[in-house]
Prior knowledge:
Nucleotidyltransferase, domain 5; 5-stranded mixed β-sheet; globular; 7 helices; alpha/beta; two-stranded antiparallel ribbon
Amino acid sequence: xxxxxxxxxxxxxxxxxxxxxxxxxxxxxxxxxxxxxxxxxxxxxxxxxxxxxxxxxxxxxxxxxxxxxxxxxxxxxxxxxxxxxxxxxxxxxxxxxxxxxxxxxxxxxxxxxxxxxxxxxxxxxxxxxxxxxxxxxxxxxxxxxxxxxxxxxxxxxxxxxxxxxxxxxxxxxxxxxxxxxxxxxxxxxxxxxxxxxxxxxxxxxxxxxxxx
Length: 212
C-alpha cells in the first residue's frame, strides 16, 4: 500500500539472535520496487509464517528471494565482542544502520529512469519491534510483530535467520562440543550443560552473565 501511494521504495528490516548466549546478532534489510507487487509470486505463499517454518522451508524461501530481480538485500551483523562492549540493543541497531545504508548505496534501483535509491527519494523503512532505529535519517515505522504482518519484514527475517544459521553451523566446526549446529547459540539445556563442562569460548557473550 505504501508503494501504491507516496513511496518509491519500501525497506523491511529485522534481526535474529538477540537472545542467544553465543554468536552474532544478524540483521537483514530488503528493498522492493513497486513492480514486484504487481506480479503474482505463488512460490512465496506461506512466507509470512516465518516463525513456524522448518529450517528446510526457510532455506527454500531464502533461495527464491535472493534471485528476485525486483528485490535487493543486505546483511550486516555484530560480533559478540561488540555486543559485550555496547550491549545487544545498541549492537543490533548499529547493524541495522549499516545494512540499510549499504542497501541504499548499492541497490542499483532506479527512480524516474535516472536517479538511484538514496535518502532523498521517498523511501520508508519498516522495522520489526516497538522502537525505531536511532540515528537513521529518513522516514521509518516500527511495527510490533512485523514479521507476521508485513511482507518486507518477513522476507528480511527469513534471510537473516538462514544467514545466521549457516554462520553458527560453521562455528560448530571451529568450536566443537557446544552443539552450535543444533541450537544455534540459544540457551538450551544442552548448551548450558556443555558450558558447565567446557567453559565458554570466544563467541560466547560474556555480558549475558552466563550461568553454568
